[in-house]
Write a structure and sequence with these properties.
6-stranded antiparallel beta sheet; 18% helix; 5 helices; 7-stranded mixed beta sheet; single chain; 292 residues
């Protein structure tokens, strides 16, 4: 008989001059996140990269725009960069025939198709003494990517021109593997719960509906991303150990239900994408125990 071990650690101004163009006028779909046709992209990373490239290719640009030279593009950075190891970011730098304020107004009144405005930024000074204005637009998320974003950063060049950096970016999401799921033929859960660091463990054995409820919660959880610096609640050391009996393969879940609430997973000794949801699992376990 195979076993699964689950460890839960509970712990507009409109500018009258200039017409609208796009970098890819042949693509007329209203939603740049929808596939334009058949694609061989399969992995979350490949799909995300394709969507990001499409968003960037459809960025609205005024008539008279040209590509920036290397010197003009130097030092023109991304306005707000997510701290994420799964980030896909593509950018292009242009020179537009407007002064800074006119350029900002033009881009404000010509949002990218399929995206919604989410605000703007402003900066001055910096290492190169540059002043810039930024606009940001958000798109939809899917099970393969989230945080789809277009950022437009406008920098002054001279009295009648500005440098514009356009970024399209999104975060690809790792997917759950079959090895991470509780086998449907699991018949019991044995283990213990520790309410806080140093507390005596409360031993348990669960069958029937309790097993199915815990398995359902675990199978609904999605892989997490490394979102960079995260402010997590205090980790008090509370944790549960839930051992599912029956079925294959034999995954082990290391779940934090305090602190960040992440769930580390291994299956037959191989690391799997980490999950979220430790709090929900521990809450369900506590309810199951209190109802007994």
């Amino acid at each position: 008989m195979n076993r699964i071990v689950l460890t839960v650690a509970a712990s507009a101004l409109l500018v009258g001059c200039g017409s609208r163009t796009t970098a890819s006028p042949s693509d007329t779909a209203s939603d740049p996140t929808r596939p334009a046709g058949a694609s061989t992209a399969q992995t979350p990373l490949e799909v995300t990269a394709r969507v990001v490239e499409r968003v960037l290719s459809r960025a609205p640009l005024p008539s008279g725009t040209r590509a920036a030279t290397a010197q003009e593009a130097h030092g023109k950075g991304l306005q707000s960069r997510p701290m994420d190891e799964n980030l896909v970011d593509r950018h292009r730098v242009y020179v537009v025939p407007f002064a800074l304020d006119q350029a900002v107004s033009w881009f404000s009144s010509h949002p990218p198709p399929g995206l919604d405005s989410s605000g703007g930024t402003s900066s001055s000074g910096g290492p190169d003494g540059l002043t810039s204005e930024g606009l940001e637009y958000d798109g939809r998320s899917t099970r393969l990517y989230n945080n789809l974003d277009e950022q437009v950063a406008v920098y002054p060049l001279d009295d009648s021109h500005a440098v514009v950096r356009v970024d399209a970016l999104a975060t690809w999401l790792p997917q759950r593997t079959a090895d991470e799921r509780v086998p449907k033929d699991a018949t019991a859960v044995v283990g213990f719960r520790i309410a806080r660091a140093g507390a005596r463990p409360e031993h348990l054995r669960l069958t029937g509906a309790a097993v199915r409820e815990l398995a359902r919660l675990l199978d609904e959880e999605r892989p997490i991303n490394a979102f960079g610096a995260i402010n997590c609640p205090n980790d008090d050391g509370a944790r549960d150990r839930l051992h599912f009996i029956g079925g294959t393969p034999d995954p082990v879940f290391h779940v934090a239900a305090s602190g960040c609430g992440f769930i580390g997973v291994t299956a037959d000794g191989a690391a799997q994408p980490a999950l979220g949801g430790g709090y929900a699992v521990d809450l369900a376990l506590r309810k199951i125990l209190s109802d007994r």
